[in-house]
Amino acid sequence: MSVGFVMLVHEALDRASQVARHWSEHGLPVVIHVDKRVGLEDYLHFRAKFADFANVRFSERYACEWGSWSIVQATQSACEMLLSNEKDIQHVFLASGSCVPLRPVLELKEYLGERPKTDFIESVTTDEVDWTVGGLDQERFTLRFPFSWKKQRRLFDWYVDLQRRFKFRRNIPEGLVPHLGSQWWCLTRRTLGAILEDPRRAEYDAYFNRVWIPDESYFQSLARLYSSDIESRSLTLSKFDFQGKPHVFYDDHLQLLRRSDCFVARKIWPSAERLYSEFLEPNHAVTAFGEPNPLKIDRLFGRATDRRIRGRAGLYMQGRFPDEGWENGKTSGRYSVFEGFTDLFEDFIPWLSRRTGNRVHGNLFAQDRVHFANGEAIYNGSLSDSAKIRDYNSKAFITNLIWNTRGEHQCFQFGPADKQEISWFITSDRNAQIFAISGAWAIPLFHSTLSFSEIRKEAARLQRIEAAHLEMLRNGQTKARVAIWSLAEFIENPMEYLQTILDDIGGDVQRRIAEVPSMADLNGFGQFLQNLKNQGMSPHLMGDFPIIDGSPGKPKGQRPYLVKR
Predict the structure, then answer these.
(1) Distance between CA atoms of 358 and 80, rounded to whole angstroms?
(2) Strand pairing partners for 30?
(3) Cβ contacts of residue 120 below 8 Å, gap of 6+?
(4) Which residues in the chain land under pLDDT 70?
(5) Residue 68 to residues 24, 149, 170, 217: CA-CA distances in angstroms?
(6) What's the pLDDT tens digit per position in 285-322?
(7) How far is CA 542 from the centre of its chain?
């Protein structure tokens, strides 16, 4: 008793001939189906390679198209030839031209010899399978599919929608429960013969002729009618990605393939010289393999799929870049945005840099240029300080900045006078920390030498911009960590809030602040705000700011602000 192979070949004929010769030289019968779309000259040349092999035969040729009934026809024809000519085989192993045996033939014969009545075929109902791709599970068995999904996609979709609209439903043959599974199986002679010789075969064939992708359901369903012992798994390692496309194995997958303990692997790259030479070696020694278990390497495939779909955080590629929300995090690391701090404190940037050891930039989105740390014109990754280049794609600019400085915590300033297009990107980024002092933009205007009418107009413009920005920060969809203080609230107790900021972003480990930045002169600032009100502008983002220092209405509990000189 032995095992015979049926091979479905349509490309890479040289590699398919190597595999077929390997099995044949080890005494296993092989029946090969060559796709009818392969040219006659190539077919005859391929067939001539087996002229001296009595146990290699060629079945009737069909033009096989993906997802079509012709693949099942080709399999039926080849299996019938194998069973009629090889009376002593116990199992039939279905393989493709891109398969490679991973374990010695002797091990396969011994393994199947110990399980003479076991059918190895993945066979699960549509309710239990989660890998169908394309939106058709149960419907593939109840609708008709006369059009090619690959070549006639519009007709395919139109006809499916038409059937759904008129609630068309095909009757499933009585007694048959549709099952799905991998196309690559190993069935016993008894089960396969019962399927091919079934009195109702014409009825089953007519039904599956219009099922979508019947090669994944025909044998998988009918085996349930006749098998006495089904192992719902394949002895062939065949992996698919999230789009339903098969994974291709290359030379660097050698150890991965060995780890699977499967007998055959598909789909092997035709130019994988090392894999073919390693596994088709004539003296391939018998080793201590375990039970075939493709699940052993699923974790690695899962990680590969996750990397392909999501990528690395903050790194974009052509497959995800056009689609909003497909990125694996907008940026690759945490960063901090400070709004209003350089308006309130004269030396905030050098102070924060000293305290945290982080890179602290100026206003990266200023109107005139990009204000990198230390006034640099070119920054990591050849980022230019040109405002024109930055504004061409401001999202890519901030993404590249964070990516190019991985391992460092970036800090930069932002305000209503800056370009605002980047606001929502930052607000919706989980890596962003935003600290905002609302109304602080009024301090530079307070010290400005402009005419008061110009100041009033500019104050109104900046307040409108900041009010819209603050509304965005308080939006329920905001993902950044946000802390907002009014100007009056912050200057009431600046030491505590600065300590909170340092605790959040990390840096120099000290229990309390020993050195603080110099606060701008705010004498007369309350009267300045009142003057704006008197001129018809209502500055409300600063909070309850006193008109005269020391007057009633001065924030309660104000502590002296110590500055170390």
Answers:
(1) 74
(2) 5, 56
(3) 185, 186, 187, 231, 233, 234, 235
(4) 1, 127-137, 282-289, 294-296, 318-323, 325-326, 507-511, 547-565
(5) 29, 9, 18, 12
(6) 545 567 777 666 777 777 777 777 777 888 877 666 66
(7) 45
- Residue 411's DSSP bridge partners are 336, 360
Both tokens of 224, joined, read 């349930």
**DSSP characters over 169-227:** -PPPPTT----B--S--EEEHHHHHHHHT-TTHHHHHHHHTTSSSGGGTHHHHHHHHH-
Q: Is 531 exposed, middle or buried (0-12, 13-18, 19+ CB in 10 A)?
A: middle
State the first-to-last Cα distance of the chain, in angstroms, to the nearest integer. 95
Place of tokens 């079945």: 59
Distance CA 48, CA 44 (A): 6
The answer to whether the predicted template modeling score (pTM) of the entire model surpasses 0.70 is no
Counting Cα atoms < 13 Å in the Cβ hemisphere of 119 gives 27
Considering Cα of 85, then 89, then 91, then 93, what sign does the dihedral take? negative
Q: Which letter does DSSP use for residue 246 in this model?
A: B
| 6-36 confidence digits (pLDDT tens) | 999 999 999 999 999 999 999 999 999 999 9
